[in-house]
Design goal:
This protein is mainly alpha-helical. It is about 70% helix and about 5% strand. The protein is built from ten helices and two strands. It has a two-stranded antiparallel ribbon. Strand 1 and strand 2 form a beta hairpin. Helix 7 runs antiparallel to helix 8. The radius of gyration is 28 Å and the shape is globular. The termini are far apart.
Length: about 300
């Protein structure tokens, strides 16, 4: 009798376990379907509010036109869409509608005239790059943006702006010499990477007073891998959440760049303090020219 009772209890427990798993699976499926339905409904409502703005045809539910973007360069794809749909149109990406504008008049209205009417997409477009952008001018809005804009308007002195064209010309000359060397040797150069390095050389010299060699060796080598991973996360958002080898490497790269920038700021703070203290002791030294930079 005892053994029969135990068998009946085990059978009942197994039956209840199967029923619980079945109910859990039904709940999960219902939640997923509900989420997809919610996204479809909100997308349809957004498209209705956009009125007569053309929408790119095709695409799959939720992921939208991502596959079209992945077939080639996204910029070439959007250029093709501009020729087909006009200077303003929408396309669907990962449950949200993106608006493409190529009309200069409309772009000026968005970026300047009515800047406050357009919210920055920090939760979508900017999200993979927030570790670099943070809460600065590019991503901030309202009172925070105005406060930072006022601060940087005092920091970006006229003499610094006068130096930047010279820095850009020097960077282009260095790239020209590099291209000539590659041509003589019959080698190959990745132009996108070369232009990114050129841009960082100008930024590093203007803002951090770093020479080009130091920029390529330290700043660019730490900054570019973070941006490359951010670009990959734009087209594959799952990379932000799954703890893979690249996920851990990205975290280490960010920490490394943070430490490097913190050390640079500390050095500049010390140099500035020493220079001001020295000038207070020896007023004749105030005429000494300090290499221009935003941090000093």
């Amino acid at each position: 009798l005892f053994e029969q009772g135990m068998q009946l209890s085990n059978q009942a427990y197994t039956h209840l376990g199967q029923a619980s798993r079945l109910e859990l699976a039904q709940i999960v499926v219902s939640l997923v379907l509900g989420f997809i339905l919610f996204k479809i409904c909100t997308s349809m409502l957004r498209r209705r509010r956009m009125g007569n703005i053309p929408c790119v045809k095709g695409g799959l539910p939720y992921i939208g036109n991502v596959l079209s973007m992945l077939k080639g360069s996204p910029w070439d794809t959007m250029t093709h869409w501009v020729a087909e749909y006009g200077e303003i149109f929408t396309f669907h990406l990962f449950g949200s509608d993106a608006l493409c504008v190529s009309d200069p008049v409309l772009l000026r209205e968005i970026l300047q005239t009515k800047l406050g009417s357009f919210k920055k997409d920090t939760g979508g477009t900017y999200k993979p790059f927030m570790v670099i952008l943070g809460g600065g001018l590019v991503t901030s809005e309202g009172a925070s943006w105005r406060r930072q804009r006022t601060l940087i308007s005092h920091t970006l002195r006229i003499e610094i702006l006068n130096e930047i064209p010279r820095m850009a010309v020097d960077a282009v000359a260095r790239l020209g010499k590099r291209l000539a060397e590659v041509k003589r040797s019959g080698g190959v150069i990745e132009m996108a990477e070369a232009f990114r390095g050129l841009t960082l050389q100008v930024i590093a010299e203007a803002i951090l007073s770093l020479p080009p060699e130091e920029s390529d060796k330290t700043f660019a080598s730490m900054y570019l891998p973070i941006m490359e991973e951010g670009n990959l996360r734009v087209w594959n958002p799952l990379r932000m959440f799954f703890p893979s080898a690249t996920w851990f490497k990205h975290g280490r790269d960010v920490e490394r760049l943070d430490s490097y920038m913190a050390s640079l700021v500390g050095i500049y703070a010390y140099v500035s303090f020493f220079f001001i203290f020295s000038c207070s002791l020896h007023p004749s030294h105030t005429s000494t020219r300090v290499p221009p930079s935003i941090l000093t």
